[in-house]
Amino acid sequence: MTSVLTNAAATAALQTLRAIGSDMDEVQSRVSSGFRVQTASDNSAYWSIATTMRSDNKAISAVDDALGLGAAKVDVTYAGMESTIDVLTEFKAKLVAATEEGVDKSKVQTELEQLKQQVVSIAGSASFSGQNWLNTDIAEIYDNDLNEVSVVSSFVRDASGRVSVQKMDFHLSEIALFNSTGGGLLQADARDVKTIGGMRYFSSSEPIVSDGTLYYGDLGSGWMYPRSGDGSAANFYLDDFPVGSPLDFNIPGAEISFDIILDKEASNPHNLSGSAAALDDLPGPYYPGYSKTITITKADVDAVYPGLGGVITTNTEFAAVLNSVLNPEGARVSADYGMYDPPSSKNWVHDPEKMTISTLEQHGDGSYVEIANLSSVGVSTGGLKDSYAFGSRGSGVELNFSEFIVHEDGDNLDGVEISFTFSVNGEPATSHSFDRTYVNELLGKDTGKVETAEEMATLLHSLLDADWPDLIIEATSPSTVMVKSDPAVDREWGSGTQIEFDNIRVSIEPLSTLNFLEINIEKNPDMVDTYIDYLEVVTGKIIDGAASLGAIKGRIDMQSEFTNKLSDSIDTGVGRLVDADMNEASTRLRALETQQQLAIQSLSIANTSADGILQLYRQ
Fold this sequence. Notes:
Layout (H helix, E strand, L loop, with lengths): L7 H26 L10 H55 L6 H21 L1 E2 L2 E2 L2 E2 L11 E10 L5 E9 L6 E2 L20 E4 L9 E5 L2 E7 L1 E3 L4 E3 L9 E2 L6 E8 L12 H5 L10 E7 L1 H7 L6 E2 L2 H12 L4 E4 L3 E3 L7 E3 L5 E4 L8 E10 L9 E4 L5 E5 L3 E2 L11 E8 L5 E6 H8 L5 E2 L2 H12 L6 E7 L2 E6 L12 E9 L21 H51 L3 H27 L2 H8 L1
Parallel strand pairs: 3-6
Antiparallel strand pairs: 1-2, 4-5, 7-9, 8-9, 10-29, 11-19, 12-15, 13-14, 13-20, 16-19, 17-18, 20-21, 22-28, 23-26, 24-25, 24-29, 27-28
Helix pairs in contact: 1-10, 2-3, 2-9, 5-6
């Protein structure tokens, strides 16, 4: 139908042209911007995701920059530590050279001073962006909260949408060479626990068998050894055997007679005084000992040495004869002693005079030996004499207490840890340990300090009572703590008795308790060996610190590489959501341009279809 009011064909053609124009605007926008989702109106979900991820990617880029800054700090510090190790190696070589006889130590000291200044220079110059991790200013370098530094490692958004910046933390106490308040690796470590309240003792003697720990501190240079008590069997020396005067038992009626008394008990038999007497305290009743009369005749000599013809000429022969009659009773005689002959020589020979008699501790719990009522007929006594001796009780020890502090430790929130084993009379040892937190909770403190002998006794009670209920621990004076088995339960005396702290380990030892800058072999020529050992300790600690830095550097490098890959992945992911396909957009734009030309022609045709009606009006 043809209407004079409405040109339906033109209207349809116009609508088509408008739609094509709208599509062309959209495609042209994609081509010009490169995005298929440029605003929220294009696709609100994709736009929101893309905008968030672009923001995160900028944060990740900042993290990568921060990683670069952290890596630079680590690199500078690591280089400083490597150089320091080289200087310390040279320093130790100079010290070794100074041990040679005739070396002028003053000249060597001059060289050492230059090397010291080189180390100071290295530590002072190892700075980046205003931070120096080798030369620090920390009020308490052992405090975990104060010595911690961080390097940014990552930017994280969790499942709930919360964001956070992750960091890598480590402690400057592991790497600082010098600190303004002390405690650097090349400075004295103030965390010396010394004798741990008497559980160990200091000696300058090098360990042979005992469990010694290398020590350099306020007490000197040497070793720390666990405190212990060891009992011994009762024994005493006999008079000198009469060399050159044989014992001839061929004389009619020749004999030696005496009473042997063994293993009787007594309280404080050595008459000790003060707190030491308490170690030998023994409640009654007391065993009176085993007694037997011994008579030695020619028959006894012949039974042991048939070829001697009843004549004893050496202390070794006499000891063997005595043992033949004493061993069954629970005693023994020894002539196994030597001497240098002449005294100033190194010629070690048998001592022909010396002998001892001791108990075999076969009667009761005591340790005692006595010769009484000694007499002889026709021969001398061969060096025997009326005498007696008690053994010693080893199941008690008196600790020489001195106060100590269990300090903080950077990596360990509970502070320095001290561990040890403990045993009595050869029983299986039990393991124990305590740290700063333990001491503070036990004593109600926040300092980690054990200040009095009473506090030391409290600490030992808390550690040992559960495993050793028959142990007596008490402060016997302000400077002594007694630890012993209860004699009311344990009456044993002599060689079978022992009390032992052993395997003592302090988590931060050996300590560098000397100051590197105070090494002076000119003033202290006798300390060269000590300085060499000290260099071993501190060099090891610096190597450990450099190794820790190396691990951190490796982690930073890996994190930086990951951050770059992550950023690229986010860019790719966002692109998949919002980027336009330019090939597709270009092709579609060409198609829409063609459609637009056709739509224009269609509109033109639609407009000319009304010409016939217009002619009617012209006529």
